[in-house]
Amino acid sequence: MLALARALENGAFAGPLATALGRVWEHTLGRTVVRRLTWPSHVRVVTVGGATLGGSGKTPLAMACAAALATDGTSVALVGHAYRATPRHARVVRGDDPLDEVGDEALLAARALGPAGVRVVVAPERQDAVELASRFAEVIVIDGVVQTAPVRASLSILAVDAAEPWGHAVALPPGGDLRAPVSRLVEACDLVVAVGDAGQAPIPAGTLHAPAEIPGAWVRGELVGWDELAGLRLGLLSALARPDRVVRSLERRGGRVTAVVRAPDHGPFGADSLERASGEAVDLWVATPKCALHLFAARAARSRSAASREVGVLRHACALPVALARSLSVAGRGSLSRTP
């Protein structure tokens, strides 16, 4: 399918053939919206999928959902996807696990959710992770899945970017970055939640809003607020698919981003990126917590690197809307479980 996408993007096909191939692409992506997963009948499942191929805010939303369920007194596990990592077997993630074995988002979630009693599970196959999580959790939050079959999730949540809900264009790859046709995504879920700062257009009717909470950045163990950050030239170190979302969030809070150094989505940071960061004229480099994992791992591998300047780690979360919190509470009690 990747070869097909590139051929379409490069204009190798035209006319009726291009239309037919586009339909094949749409059909193939549409089939990924519902994943076949099974679990014991006493377990409830909450799924949190993203509308786009990265950058929809699904993992912060999944983490917030797991934390809310735990606060409600529910035994919760979060099943991560270990993207670009190689877990050898189903395992509970520890806060000191190697990044390349469990993945950045699972490691970040384990560190953030551990104090709340939420265990994070990854595996080579998602089904294996669900089976392990089912041994000790009443509710499983699955990060990266919109809907399940043959039994539907107790609650299915679709995360969309609040500023660009359907990506850079309402189109599938290669023209856009939608995970699947909008109709397929919306039909599969119970709730659509816009994550992050809203754009110029209002949040669509019927869509819940989980606003971003970024009170500042941790620098040398202290939280530096926007009253101080706003006066600095900020540089962003990013290992995200869409760093422009972070830039917009910083600028809305008064930040002045004068440089962006990118690594591939989910890392790693290479030596060239670190060297470039050393030469940029910024007062403070900042990174999201996920990007900071890759940055510090790269620095540890290159202890004598010139890129040793101070980095502020942004404090970032999303606030759950009241309606979503209520739906989670009902799902946690098992009242929403149903079959197709």
Helical stretch tally = 12
CATH architecture of the largest domain: 3-Layer(aba) Sandwich
**Uncertain segments of ≥5 residues (pLDDT<50)?**
1-13, 336-340
- Please give the order of strands in the largest beta sheet: 4-5-3-6-2-8-9-10
- What is the approximate shape? globular
* E-strand count: 16
The H-and-E topology, N to C, reads as HHEEHEEHHEHEEEHEEEEHEHEHEHEH
Overall radius of gyration: 20 Å
Termini separation comes to 30 Å
CATH class of the largest domain: Alpha Beta
Beta-strand level of the residues, as a percent range? Answer: 15-25%
The main pleated sheet reads as:
8 strands, mixed
Mean pLDDT: 87
- The helix content, as a percent range, equals 25-40%
| Helix vs. strand class | alpha/beta
Descriptive account of the structure:
By secondary structure, the chain is of the alpha/beta class. The protein folds into 2 domains: 34-210 and 319-332, Rossmann fold (3-Layer(aba) Sandwich), CATH 3.40.50; 213-316, Rossmann fold. It is built from 12 helices and 16 strands. The protein has helices at 2-9, 16-30, 58-71, 99-102, 104-113, 126-133, 182-188, 226-229, 243-252, 271-279, 289-301, 322-332; strands at residues 34-36, 44-50, 76-79, 91-92, 119-122, 139-143, 147-149, 155-161, 191-195, 208-210, 212-219, 222-225, 233-238, 256-262, 284-287, 311-318. An 8-stranded mixed beta sheet has the order 4-5-3-6-2-8-9-10, with helices on both faces. Strands 12-11-16-15-13-14 form a 6-stranded mixed beta sheet, sandwiched between helices. Helix 3 packs parallel to helix 5. The relative contact order is 0.15. The model is unreliable at 1-13 and 336-340 (pLDDT under 50).
